[in-house]
Design a protein that fits this description.
Length: 280
Amino acid sequence: MIIKDHQKEPLLRDLKLGGAYLVVLSLIFGAYLIRTPMSVGITILSFFAFIFFVGIYVLQANPMLIKILGAEAERVPALLWQIPLGLWLVSLVYALLAARIDLYYMIAGLLYCMLPVVFIILLRGKDTSLQWLDVALILFMWLPIEFGWIPGLSIPPQHGMAGVYHLIGLALIIYFYFAVRRLPDVGFTFRLKGPDWRTAIQNFIFFMPIALIFGFATGFIDFSQRVPSLGQMFATFVGIAFFTAIPEEILFRGVIHNLIEKKLANKKNGIIIALTISSV
């Protein structure tokens, strides 16, 4: 991998930040593993699998790393299939050590990791507006996870907190669209600035009352007799943020919205369509 001198400082700065987030997530997951009944071997295996599969997602929140990965994909085209193949092989090792491997898992996992490579190779050189190949690629990576068609191996194998192919699919979407397709104006980073915090707080204040009203009215939210500890509330908040909210934003606002906006040349219509798709 070729890293230029002017790229080193911002690359290392965001890698350190991503590493800090990964440490926090790993500590929370470690506490969850300690409370979950399982053998010592499975506990250790699950912990290191979590670090690897979550790490390839979290550490990509680095604009300079994404830029370098995109340049490497142009310089070494074989990376387009080597990276997905490597992720599939690691998932096989995890499944084998967890005694969860079978022929269906092997074939389904291989297809899920490798068929999108065909789409992304065909998309190279095309503009960043929505193409029919984009639709095929996104549906192929999204629907198997959404409807449970891909084998449900999780980390840990029992009482899973995160799905292996959920994390692999997320990492590949980031790589394919942010590094290889180079969608503009995505800004996937954890280095938030003042305006980002203000926008987040304003939207939270606006959205929370509406969400509570609809949640209680539909029964989606209900009162509980048990009050969780501050640690449990923090772990739940972090888990929802990193494994539900951010992945949905990456797919719908980061990828689908940007592709549709470029296709329609109309930001407002792109937002409306992307929000409609994400709410279906």
